[in-house]
Amino acid sequence: MSRPTIFAAKFVGTISLGLLTGSSLTLSNLILPPLLSLPTLPPALASFTTLRRSTATHQTALASLAATSFLLAYTLSPRNAKHPYLLWTTSTLLAGWGIGWWRRDAEKELTLEEGRSASWARARAESGEVNGEVVREEMEGWRWGQVLRGGVWALGWGMSVVGIWGDGA
């Protein structure tokens, strides 16, 4: 395949992985702390429900785009130019998602259920079905999961930057 096509795939993967890293670290350091300081449970739970759903949607799209781009670049590269950093970078994407699945299995499903709306979460919190401390613990756990994922993805982003720079592209 042509060199510009391979470079474009590497570039798109690197940018997507950078955006993914930035979104994860921004969520954990800038967005979630104000949610933790909300004085009442219903708005905090509704906001957290919406945040988790939109985060999962956007992070899945970015991770899929990055992984597809890196694997496409590796596949299209000639035999003498198949750089292993593309596979290592893709493995950091998979490791980040593995952390997400591990966190999901470890979480208590007391406050959130997949496919439920923020209004459902608010109604459940107002009815007293959900304890505020449980929600706070879940938010803290999700926050540290995002920090860990962001760190793993930052490692992959660093590898991709060094790799694309080393390719001379």
Features:
0% strand; 81% helix; mainly alpha; 169 residues
Order of helices and strands: HHHHH
Distance between the termini: 15 Å
- Label the structural class: mainly alpha
Sketch the major β-sheet: none
Mean pLDDT: 82
Strand content: under 5%
Number of helices: 5
User: Which term fits the overall shape?
Assistant: elongated
Topology record:
Layout: H1 3-36, H2 41-76, H3 84-106, H4 118-126, H5 132-166
Descriptive notes:
81% of the residues lie in helices and 0% in strands. The chain is mainly alpha-helical. It has five helices and no strands.
Short structural summary:
This protein has helices at residues 3-36, 41-76, 84-106, 118-126, 132-166.
